[in-house]
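Researcher: I need the complex structure. Ligand is adenosine-5'-diphosphate. Inputs:
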Amino acid sequence: MEKILAINSGSSSLKFKLFNMPEEKVLASGLIERIGLKTANVTIKYGNGEKYTDVTSIADHKVAVDILLNLLLRFNIIGDYNEITGVGHRVVAGGEYFKHSAIIDDDVEKKIGDLAVLAPLHNPAHLIGIKAFKKQLPQAISVAVFDTAYHQTMPEENYIYSLPYEWYQKLDVRRYGAHGTSHQYVAQEAAKMMKRPLEDLKLITCHLGAGASITAIKDGKSFDTSMGFTPLAGITMATRSGDVDPSLLSYVIDKNKNEVPDMEKMVDILNHKAGLLGISGVSSDMRDILEAAPTNHRAQLAVDIFVKNVVKYIGQYIAEMQGVDGIVFTAGIGENSQPIRSLVMKRLKYLGIEEDVANNATFGKNIFVSTADSKVKVMRIMTDEELVIARDVQTLKKSVNYVSAN
Ligand code: ADP
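Model: Output:
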């Protein structure tokens, strides 16, 4: 039995889950937010529904890691730091270099830093977390699990843009995708639910959270995905635009200099002020938008465009794969929003999909939301990116132990 930490560190936050492996039991989970401020928030859940919260001054990630480990000791979740034998870190951009998870040595650390050009907000923040944990837990193996790695199986025709090919060769401009760990996990769970080998299935996984992406999975591998060079592409998201015509960018900068003086501001707006928020003017949260929709045209329009985009990508991927066996809804909206699942399924009736209304109204477990006789199965599956991270840490740890034992 060993304890493994799955970490998602942002520039001012640290999300964690501690697992007992290999039984995959969650011992504790939590979040430290507003790192760098005097009013940082600490939340830890553990035991039988126990919860600890605190507001305190946390200068940097090293202090945050100290606080976290001390709380794990204080609540007897660990008896000693040495019990934590591995730490897995979510890393957003792995470029073409990382096709699998990797043990973080000095070279891997440097490479994650170099790849910050592809994820300027994320990769540097991950590195801060990686360094802080390495310092406090030098005995634990440190592993990077990349959001992009799962999509490295896409065929060339699905990752090369219709641009000068030299841009790919010289500048690494291509589709990388994201949310790979989530798509991989829910695809495996879908195959279990359908009682068929994953390799035999054509699946479309819809990760609909604040960030949203849709992936076509063929022969058990990522075949195409809606996010692109960065997570800005694809379907409408909470505050991200998804696909737009690039010609409109220079047009708007030219015509609207006061609000959008340059490309930097434009990209900021496309990331933070567009999507559901931009269309509705109400909120970036689908719950608020659905509530407002009956009496607010723009909120209703945001719902309609979101649903249309999901349906459009599903249709595109069915055409690309020449069929589909199962469709999965996951992440914040996909797992929790009965109305959005229902609206999407209504528009997929042509595939022989019928909503199982009773199942679709349930919460919190993996379930078929299409009827048993639907030709294409539709599932709601609760994603668990942290579990994939913990599993990868264990797998890599075993390979190291094997090499050192031989
Ligand atoms: P991320 O990890 O990208 O921040 P999540 O997967 O946690 O996103 O999803 C967060 C989103 O899920 C929120 O933007 C919220 O709109 C949406 N969400 C959560 N619960 C519901 C619900 N019951 N109905 C509709 N949307 C929901």
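Model: Summary of the prediction. Residues 204 and 290 are 25 Å apart (CA to CA).
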